[in-house]
Amino acid sequence: MSDVQIYAGIDIGGTNIKFGLFDAEGKILYREQRPTMAEKGPTPLLHLITNIAERLMYHAAEENYSVRWIGVGSPGAVDHRTGRVIGPCPNIEGWQGTEIAAAMRERLNMPVFVDNDVNSMALAETRFGAAMGARSVVCVTVGTGVGGGVIIDGKVVHGANSSAGELGHMTIEVDGPLCACGNHGCIESFCSSQAIINRTRTKLKNGMSDIFRTVLDGSLDNLTIKKIFAAARKGDQTANEVVIETGRYLGVGLSGIVNLLNPEVVVIGGGITDGGAGFVGAVNEEIKRRAFTSATENLTVTKAALGNDAGFMGAGLLGEVNQ
Ligand SMILES: [Zn+2]
């Protein structure tokens, strides 16, 4: 009996590394996660992901599966041709400049492909998830930051220097709030968790509902993004206003992207999708209010479908698309 070909992927997050094995239909055969321990620096992290890759190979061999390459999704801009981190990566100290593919290849003696984490997620959602079957897809994640990945004609758009797709840093207000990137008025400066917390705090200074009082034990000091989303799900008006507002800000930026690229599907993932049903609807309405009808009449705006599995699944597919 010849071995069945399957895929192995590793998704490096700021907090956890998620990894697993899956087959050509997207069925997950094995999945696990480990803390990233980003504070320990790049060398221990490289050892950890190399060990994880070996563990995945071992599990595959045990079940008589064959894996032809290891795929890795990393935060920050990654040169997908060399597997080197070329952009800054605030969550992992010292990660910029790390030769992920070269270091892993040397120890594993097999092909290793690396790309940006949101590019990987976009690939997985296009192959197995919310944008299944689409050829042109824009994927956005809204959480601590706002990330993006663009697929055109089934391929990840990397641009001239592997820096394409950073749609979180598109300016939507000339003199808007200072963004983590140093620019002003980026989408991220309105839609990041911190931006949502700041706007909610301002609104709640004028008084809070019974729902918020319960969720926060009566104190604004307890305000976190999770508590805001919990209040929104319980039907709190202020929390829902903030979620909808955030959706409108994202929609303003995405309407430009939709006019530019005319995608079939816009996929929205990340923590924001825990904030209740209103967010994706608000993004959709704002895009359709602003972009050309010709660009939106066949457009679907939808929540990501693969959740935490998208990153490692997309990474596992990299060897097919980035060769
Ligand atoms: Zn920015």
User: In which order are the strands of the major sheet placed?
Assistant: 3-2-1-4-7
CA-atom Rg in angstroms? 20 Å
What is the terminal separation in angstroms? 28 Å
**Total number of helical segments?**
11
Which descriptors apply to this entry?
alpha/beta, Nucleotidyltransferase, domain 5, 2 domains, 5-stranded mixed beta sheet, 39% helix, globular, binds zinc ion
Structure description:
The chain is an alpha/beta fold and 323 residues long. The protein has two domains: 4-129 and 308-321, Nucleotidyltransferase, domain 5, CATH 3.30.420.40; 137-304, ATPase, nucleotide binding domain (Nucleotidyltransferase, domain 5), CATH 3.30.420.40. Helices cover 39% and strands 21% of the residues. The chain has a five-stranded mixed sheet with strand order 3-2-1-4-7. Helix 3 crosses helix 11 and helix 8 (237-261) packs across helix 9. The longest helix is centred in the last third of the chain and has 25 residues, at 237-261. The two termini are 28 Å apart. The relative contact order is 0.15. The mean pLDDT is 94. The structure holds zinc ion. Zinc ion (ZN) binds next to loops.
